[in-house]
UniProtKB/TrEMBL annotation:
<comment type="function">
    <text>A probable RNA chaperone. Forms a complex with KhpB which binds to cellular RNA and controls its expression. Plays a role in peptidoglycan (PG) homeostasis and cell length regulation.</text>
</comment>
<keyword id="KW-0961">Cell wall biogenesis/degradation</keyword>
<keyword id="KW-0143">Chaperone</keyword>
<keyword id="KW-0133">Cell shape</keyword>
<dbReference type="InterPro" id="IPR015946">
    <property type="entry name" value="KH_dom-like_a/b"/>
</dbReference>
<dbReference type="InterPro" id="IPR020627">
    <property type="entry name" value="KhpA"/>
</dbReference>
<comment type="subunit">
    <text>Forms a complex with KhpB.</text>
</comment>
<protein>
    <recommendedName>
        <fullName>RNA-binding protein KhpA</fullName>
    </recommendedName>
</protein>
<dbReference type="Pfam" id="PF13083">
    <property type="entry name" value="KH_KhpA-B"/>
</dbReference>
<keyword id="KW-0694">RNA-binding</keyword>
<keyword id="KW-0963">Cytoplasm</keyword>
<dbReference type="InterPro" id="IPR009019">
    <property type="entry name" value="KH_sf_prok-type"/>
</dbReference>
<comment type="similarity">
    <text>Belongs to the KhpA RNA-binding protein family.</text>
</comment>
Length: 81
């Protein structure tokens, strides 16, 4: 899980203008490991991108990483208001 956290943060930090406000929290449910990404309100558009292309690309990379166990990974982009 630490490798996946580092991967997400490595991808996101260069995209935002305020990398110090990036937070990644992990919640574990029955079926998923949910990674909740929070960025500064002015950076949310940079992470989502036009028509969600940047968010889709980030999710494609994250979902391709193999995890131990039957749980799937889910990346949520949370509005940091």
């Amino acid at each position: 899980m630490q490798d996946l956290t580092n991967l997400v943060l490595t991808i996101v930090h260069p995209l935002v203008t305020k990398p110090e406000e990036v937070k990644l929290e992990i919640e574990e449910s029955n079926d998923f490991l949910e990674y909740n990404l929070t960025v500064a309100p002015e950076d949310i558009g940079r992470i989502i991108g036009k028509q969600g292309r940047v968010a889709k690309a980030i999710r494609t990379i994250v979902y391709s990483v193999r995890t131990n166990g039957p749980k799937k990974v889910r990346l949520n982009i949370v509005d940091g208001k």
